[in-house]
Amino acid sequence: MDWKPDRESKTPIYIQLALYIESGIADGTFPPDNPLPSERGLAKELGINRSTVIAAYAELESNGLIDRNRGSGTTISKDIWGISKKRIPSWNRYIEAGSFLPNLPVTQRIHKEMAEQNLINLASGELSQDLFPMKSLREITSNRSFIGSLGYDHPQGNVILRETLNNHVKKYRNIDANPSSILVTSGAQQALHLVVQCLLKPGDAVAIENPSYHYNLPVFQSAGIKTYYLKGDQDGINPNDISELYKKHRIRMIFLNPIFQNPTGTLMAENRRKKILEISSEYGIPIVEDDPYSLTAFTGEKVETLKSFDTTGNVLYISSLTKIVASGLRIGWIIGPKAVIERLSDAKQQVDFGHASYTQWIANDFLDSTNFESHIKNLVIQLKSRRNQIVNSLQTYLNDKVDFYIPTGGIHIWCRIVQEFNEIQLLEESIKRGIIYVPGSTMGSEKGFVRFTFSREKEEYINEGIRRFADALKAVSNK
Ligand SMILES: Cc1ncc(COP(=O)(O)O)c(C=O)c1O
Predict the structure, then answer these.
(1) Ligand 1 test: best mutation among 262, 296, 317, most atoms within 8 Å of CB?
(2) Which of 79, 114, 222, 295 is the most buried (most CB within 10 A)?
(3) Using one digit for the tens of pLDDT, what is the confidence trace for 302-355?
(4) Cα(123) to centroid(ligand 1), Å
């Protein structure tokens, strides 16, 4: 319970506690028919006498706000009519009834820990502050005049930004688009969401990679979509598996992250990328190519996206600035046939009336400046050095205890822990030691993996994080 007694106050502590619970009942923090902690448990948690809790509960009971039953403990009264004269909704029932599903509990736990504690963060799929192009962004915000440009913008996204994105994808990703076939979204995440919501219906079957970022998204389940898995190796998924899935389950869409995949870091072989396009054309199945990472190749080479080979418009191409500029800008985009983009844009307008103009201008000016290219060059050097560090640290502290593939781009490394271990215990032991990562079960069905992200911390912290993780693994093995 998030409450502390005010020992200076003239109000007795049991009244303070009763008032706190009463206000929690009124605002729905403690919903009707929900249990309250035991007297002993609450006294211990709050560091007060058990007799104080008993007195507070007695006060609430006499006001009809709680029920106390031998054996079944203390609960908030089901019917608090008459006392407060206000009916309080049973928020828990609403929370559980919504059709949009929550994140997995372990994912919620990781988000909470990252928000509340200062941990070494090998979990968050983003760049660290020092990798953001702060100088250029500052210059842009101080030089630009925003007057007249802060109204609702075009629902597909600012027209100048779409021109700039059009030039950007041509230059850096070899993609022929045009501004009317681009929709600006709130990150790649919103683009994925819009695709699922607008282009699929409950009962449809789709194929996703296992493990993958898409495996981690409740968005498919919320929409009643059945997901079938495509397993991969170091060269990505096997295209023939798509044909098999199509024949068996009539899959209606394929979601792929072929370049420096999250979480495995693998780059799909070019012949497989081409073969997948052939299969897509043979069966007429659209591909959603999710590509936040293709500009991060450590060799500095340009990696061809599926979309760059797509001559028929079978690929919906999604990308964002999250992994190459700054996650907080929330600038993403989707490219596809005009009719599809207009459908998604209509939906986006219903959701949020179009993207915030401010960050669209900043993104536009940065992408359009000569600083962008040098920023990417520098970013790749930094990411490579962090990749080298994590590989080094894994070899130093966990040499015979982990197996991994060394990624040649991207920001993640996917490790198989050789020994058996309890995933939750390992996470708890790691958090206790001040390091957080993503447990493999949230991203794939196979047991025994963890995902480390090496872009969010500098080298020394990466090293320290892996050292602490090794310590946590040792503690779990000794249990
Ligand atoms: C493959 C992939 N797709 C989409 C996203 C969502 O990113 P954003 O919405 O920040 O662009 C991520 C982020 O981790 C990702 O790894």
Answers:
(1) 262
(2) 295
(3) 999 999 999 999 999 999 999 999 999 999 999 999 999 999 999 999 999 998
(4) 13
